[in-house]
Amino acid sequence: MKNANIMNEDALKATIRSIPDYPQKGILFRDITTLLKDKDAYCALIDAIADKLRPLNIDIVIGPEARGFVIGSAVAYAIGAGFVLARKPGKLPCDVISVDYGLEYGSDCLEIHKDAIRPGMRVAIVDDLLATGGTAAAVVKLVQDMGAEVVAAAFAIELEELNGKSMLGTAEVLSVMKY
User: Is the entire prediction scored with pTM above 0.90?
Assistant: First the structure.
């Protein structure tokens, strides 16, 4: 289904629920679950990200837990790439490489299997939101530590005022919606 041209950025934004003071006071949470349940919006989002990534010859899409799984795996399928999970500690069954990182409201850790990415692979990070860039920067570090290149980082939403893209080095930052 090719819906990217049917729904523009404003139409996609209209499907996003904004929740003030979640998960803590002062944060305006952009909830994509309302977009995901709308079949036209979900297809349009996946098509829009896939259209941006397709020319970059991506080998692997990596999706950070958990909304990155929902968007990243669909994008990987759409562009004919493999998909790798970036999980919270203790969730993967084999040997892992891990990195600790900061969030806009705390800290966390991500892990991927040591055999998930080979040196020289062209990798795209796909997630729901780019805020301060902590999660995506952690994934960049994991990928680089494995000898691969993060070619692009693609997001459903970018919160421009937080300048998270400054944390992503040379990776091309692609966003479908900007706030």
Answer: yes
